Amino acid sequence: MIIDTLQNAAKYYSVHPLFAKAFEYIAGIDLAAIEPGTYEIQDGLKAIVSDKPGRAREESLQKFECHRQNIDIQVCINGNEEIGWKPLERCVADKGGYDEAKDVQFFGDHPDTYFTLTQDQFVILFPEDVHAPMIGEGSIKKMVIKVRV
Membrane spanning segments where (predicted)? Predict the structure, then answer.
């Protein structure tokens, strides 16, 4: 997991071949004006924008998730988003196995830690990062860039 601000994004271009393109896409659009929806950037790279009310921790934990085929770059556009996190190797309460079609696996475990993203901050969540997003009060506008592993 990596947490940083968008102004430092170039530091992470070398981590994955598609990261430079992902962060260039983010820098090249008006985040405040982008509408919710799914945006195809290129093969192996898409953006999902949402603007929804935050959830309570317990509600978010219903979808304590990780992915095998994608890395998430989650960008907070507006609001304060708390995210729960735990390393995959410490999760033991599988909730139904891995869904390959949706690239998601849910767990009944509880996070080891919580952190908060504010405007123009991002987190990079790798397949070994189990996470519970969208915790908070009020509206949270965010972009999730799905980067194929």
Answer: none
Domains contained in the chain, number: 1
Token pair 């008006």 in the structure block, residue: 30
Contacts of residue 126, Cβ cutoff 8 Å, sequence gap at least 6: 1, 71
Mean pLDDT, rounded, for 12-35: 98
Q: What is the DSSP code string of 8-24?
A: GGGGGGGGSTTHHHHHH
pLDDT tens digit sequence for 79-97: 999 999 999 999 999 999 9
Provide the pairing of β-strand 121-125 with 70-78: antiparallel
Domain containing 72 — which CATH number? 2.60.120.370
Which amino acid, 77? I
Alpha-helical (H) ranges within 74-139 are none
Domain that holds residue 68: 2-148
Beta carbons of 22 and 45 less than 8 angstroms apart: yes
